[in-house]
Amino acid sequence: MPEETSETSSAREYVETRPPRGVYVRVFLYVVATHVLLAFMSLLVIIAKTR
Predict the structure, then answer these.
(1) To the nearest 5 percent, what fractions of the chain are helix, strand and coil?
(2) What is the gyration radius of the CA atoms in the chain, in angstroms?
(3) Distance (Å, whole) CA 49 – CA 38
(4) 16, 18, 26, 50 - which has most CB atoms within 10 Å?
(5) pLDDT per residue as tens digits for the range 8-42
(6) Phi and psi torsions of 3, nearest 5°
(7) pLDDT at residue 16, rounded to an integer
């Protein structure tokens, strides 16, 4: 039992600390990539409709 409480406390400490900066960079790149993809697809739809 004491081992489990120490593991949960260490996990809780890890959650409380700030996550590494790479996580934010990865999420930012993912959001930018999805926005660019959506914009490109909508541009293709507009070009296809005008033709």
Answers:
(1) 90, 0, 10
(2) 22
(3) 17
(4) 26
(5) 555 555 555 676 788 899 999 999 999 999 999 99
(6) -65, -40
(7) 57
Structure-block tokens of residue 25: 């960079």
Going from the C-alpha of 45 to that of each of 6, 27, 35, 49, the distances in angstroms are 56, 27, 15, 6
- Sign of the four-CA dihedral 43, 46, 50, 51: positive
Backbone angles phi, psi at 23, to 5 degrees: -65, -45
Compute the distance between CA of residue 51 and CA of residue 44 in angstroms, rounded to an integer.
11
Residue with tokens 């926005």: 35
* pLDDT attached to residue 13: 53
